[in-house]
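Help! Submission page says 'invalid entity' but I think these are all valid:
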Amino acid sequence: MKKAVAWLLGFMMVLSLTACGAKETKGEAGGQSAPDVTDGKEASGNEEISLSIILITGNEFFQGAIDDYCDQHPNVKVDVQIMDTESYKTIIKTKLASNDAPDILPVFSAADYFSYYENGYLEDLRDMTEILDRLNEGAISSFVADDGGIIGIPYLQQFLLAYYNKDMFAQYNLTAPATWEELINCCEVLKAAGITPVVQGHKDTWVTQMLTYSLNASAVQAADPSFYEGTADGINKFSDNAGWLDTLTKYDDMIKKGYMNEGSLGMTSEQMYEAFINKEAAMTFTGTWGDASIFALNPDFEVGGFPIPAEGGSTGFAVSITGGWGVSADSENVEAAKDLLAYILSKEALETYASSQITCFSDIESGVSDALAETMDAAAGLPGYPFDDANFASGVQAVMFSSIQEMIGGDKTPVEVLNDMDMATEKANK
Amino acid sequence: MRGQTGKKRAGAAAVLKTAGMALLLVVYLSPLYLLFSIALKSKEEFARNRFGLPAEIQWGNIAEAMEKMKFFPALCNSLFISVVSILLILLSASLASYTLGRRKGAVYSRLYLFFLAGMMIPFQLTMLPLYKLIHTLGIMRTHWSVICIYTAGFMPIAIVILTGFMKTIPGELDEAALIDGATPAYTFFHIILPLIKAPLTTVMIFCLVGIWNDLLTPLLFLGNSAQTLIVTLYNFVGAFYTTNWTMVFAGSIGAMLPLLAVFLACQKYFIKGMVAGAVKG
Amino acid sequence: MIWIWQRKRQINKSFWRRESSYLLFLLPALLVYVVFSIYPMFSSFYYSLTNWDGFSANVRVIGFGNYIYMFKDPGFRKALSNTFLFVLMDVVLQNVLGLGTALLLETKLRGRNIMRGLFFVPVVLPSIVVSYIWTYIYGYNKGVLNLFLEKLHMGPVDFIGDSGIAIYFVILTGIWQWMSYRMVIYVSGLQSIPSDIYEAAEIDGARPFQKLKNITLPMLAPAFKINMILCMIGALKQFDLVYTMTQGGPGYATEVIATKIFREAFDYSDYGYGCAIGVVLFLMIMLITVVTNWFFDKREVEI
């Protein structure tokens, strides 16, 4: 028996060393960075260039553009890594801290990313004027650092909405609500008929933002536009803001009245879309990225959309341009990276691959789904406000997620959630 | 004929016990039945029939999952990392425990405790400084980063096991060799080493399970193109749009099969190894 | 480390000359260990005294501020209580089940070795696979357990989504996975008890229960000790399973110390505080190991 084990190991060794010898040339290409490479390598040229990029799930459509670029520039190899937003936000810190960040990386307009820029981890992209000039007015504003540098280039315009099942609504003579009261009424009718009004997948922490930020657009941002100027350093406290309290109370109310699905804390966002498609609920609160998930499951689903309304009608609309592309300052191929970035954000690339998305570029026609169009119509004329977390101190959003989860589970009151957020702000600023 | 009925009763009792234990085993391993039955169903069948055996065994699921998650490169990476780490651990730990277990001196017992303390260090404590260190050494995103970490990480348990065993080898062997003019190195390689094959196997198996199944270290330190099997599975599952359990489980089977196969083949050694590892500590 | 150097100066020089080759043998292991385990640990000790966020260039020393904050942090207390719950349930259930199975396996049984091997399979599975299987079993909507409950006309239970009970079910999954590790150690312990003792006892008319109480259990003390220590250290360090099943959620319901460290370091960019918690964890593990060791050494039966 001992011999057998020895043989097995010996065999595995030989196998691994030979097989890996062959695989390494293919697989390792994107992983190793060449040492002591002078900056300024152009993508055109004959030297082999390796670039790395991380795609957030939901943005896989960029893969097509990347592949085209590699076809056009055979000397460039791009290592693409796909991960979900939360994993990315966690891992990127370690990667940046040890100068191991990918050449092109997702950049969000949140406190952490401005920190990264100030610490020299992100390239200032203000010289990419060709791309920047095509952006919609004001789109870049959330990516401008204090010194005027541009930390990332946004590409998608996203907003929050409630998707609703048109058939189910018609069945009960309901129409898309324009006020909070109407929304509650819809929920009441549906609940009385034995249907779950809203399905949410609260196990995925980001889902807790959907209702919150939608209502805050009216309750907090439209009501008091100066509030968020003082939240990052703790001057304005969340617990002092009537709008925040109102929003969370409404959230809590919906849970307590049974308008959201039971067991939401154990349901992931994917399961949420599935349940919605399977007609287990009439509505779900999410964002424009919901289109991709819903239509992947059922391309012919009859779905409509509306912005989640505030009491007496919305006064603000949660629109955000929080996601962008940045370039790592420690990249060995900064010029090449910028070149690739310019390509994947070019008019041709976006028109080919992002045709069903709403981009921030003025020269691209967006072919949106009915649900999104309906929502935009309903929100026409409303001032757009970015998602609230752009104004949070570092780490506060994570605390908000967990505390709202606790509120949903009945273990915390809205006031306590706001106190947690204040404490987290204090801790971040200590 | 009292003896005979006694034997019969003993025989019947044994059969009953076996049946009882077998039942217990089946209940205990029933989650694994789920794993396999779901992995081998088609998505449609899974929606209809959640618990029964698959009507048509879809071996293709496993192949599909393996292809989508780039199985073979990942397998090679896991193999390479495991084999090299284990060789390094065995060599350095046996050398060290030769000294620690057979030489007299207060220094040695202190050093032994020094190594022992390593077993209590939680990985989170060393994670980030290791990151900076690995980067400074320039081995980030190569196999060597995790190999070094594993070698250091498993050193305590390896030394504990081997030192314990070294102490049981009669000291006269060394002395005889030295009188004959052998150097310590010669003594080690030609006399002692052949004698410690058993605990070496033990350490090897212990490390194999730990290294092969590890998630966090390769996740943090290996680049995307050189990932191990377990991390590949983790990314594969995480990148899903919808919860496709058939794929999740098919992929899981792919990822766990290599080690499971080795385990089932060398079962006795695994168990002996884990025991010895624990008992000598 | 300081006391090692002081002692070395006292030892006379001929020791060094005599032992030079042997000391050289220690070098590879020592080198790797010090560079990749000890140095990072000391680094973390240092960072625990700062408020470093994990990536900024500037690092500001704040003394013991992190440790003081730990006392006030309700999140830490929750993680601590969950971790202790882990330790308690693991120690009791893993050992009871492990010992029970071991006792059953060590009787006249056909196919005993095969069964023992099969029982051991969960230990060899990767933690993420275990968590995927059990997440499926615990599912609220269409999970296995809930389907059974439905057949019994009992309402569905959100096993890992209900903040009141989630932690228990995560712990149970861990027990399922690691119980056999305890079992094989007990088996080995049982096998090392010489059978003549049992025979002598039978001659004296001892009944099975008396045999168990007066012979088996006392002579299993070494196995108990090892199992206790390994079980506790494992429970204290627990990370993989919790992280992949619930990430410490919902809210903080299943947070354990290891996930708390991860959360502080990465989600809250408070790496210094994360290190402080890590240091405390290390000290706890050391303390518990030493105490358990001492406790069992007092009770070991001399043959």
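Support: the input was valid. A stray whitespace character was the problem, and the output above is from the cleaned input. Chain B touches chain C through 92 residues (CB under 8 Å).
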